[in-house]
Each structure stands twice: as structure tokens, then as C-alpha cells.
Amino acid sequence: xxxxxxxxxxxxxxxxxxxxxxxxxxxxxxxxxxxxxxxxxxxxxxxxxxxxxxxxxxxxxxxxxxxxxxxxxxxxxxxxxxxxxxxxxxxxxxxxxxxxxxxxxxxxxxxxxxxxxxxxxxxxxxxxxxxxxxxxxxxxxxxxxxxxxxxxxxxxxxxxxxxxxxxxxxxxxxxxxxxxxxxxxxxx
Length: 188
Description:
Layout: H1 15-44, H2 48-75, H3 78-97, H4 101-111, E1 116-125, E2 131-139, H5 142-154, E3 158-167, E4 176-184
Antiparallel strand pairs: 1-2, 2-4, 3-4
């Protein structure tokens, strides 16, 4: 068997150009990889100034954590909790004491219909220092109670009456009993 090879009509072809470009591309990729590896290894080591700053920040963090633990221990101490609870109770008591009962009853008397009986009044001071009254009233008829609620709505001292429940008359109590809350515009 004889191979037909005519170097004059089929010289080496284009394979030389392919191998030349491939080796140049491989050398370029190798150089880029070496550059990236050197950059990565250089980035892993911090400058001494950054190391000192990092160490100082870690020391401060440990100091703050120790102070936090100490303060949490003091706050969770039963004596501290008792003092906090007592001061909270006294502050609420003083705030409630700021509600003038005389003024409250005078304002209620001005709008209370004659056939409605005020059975219970309890002031509640909200977080915004607004006064809200929880009331229980007795009325002989539904119309008397509706007259009372209408008077509350028309008053400039009382706002947003909210009926929370009622109970009908029985053998022991001849009145309809209504529970309601109303916002009261008394300044503390």
C-alpha cells in the first residue's frame, strides 16, 4: 500500500496556525491564573495597621459584652425587679390620682338623663395620657339609655362611646344594666 502524498498540492494546511493560536491562548490563560493566584495570596494577608485595628475592635467588643452581661445580671436581680415594679405601680397611681373625680362627676351629671343611674365608673389612663372611662349604668328603658348615649356623643367632653354589653332586668334588679367605655377629654 502506498500513500498518496503530494506535498506540492497539499502542504501542511492550516494546522500550524491553529496550534500557534492555541499555544498563545494557553500561555495567556496560564499567565492570568498565576496573576490571580498571586493577587489572592496577597489579599489573604492583612496590612499590620488593619490587624491592629481589628484586634482593638475585638477587645472593645469583648469589653462591651462583659458590661452587658453585668448589666443584665443587675437588671434580673430580684431586688431590682421589685424596685422597678414598685416604681411602675406608684407612677400609675400618681397618674390616676391626677384624674379629678369632682370634675368627672360634674361633667357626667351635666349630661346624665334623669331616668339613668350611674352604677360604676372607673378611669383608665392610656399610654398617651388620655383618660378613658369604663362605666356601668342602669336604665329603666332602652330609650333612656339611648338618650344617655346620644348625650355622650353630643358632648364635647366625651367621645366615642362604645357599648360592651348589657344585661336585662331580673327579679333582683329592675334596671337594664349596660357596660360601656368612653373617651374623656380631661387634661391630667
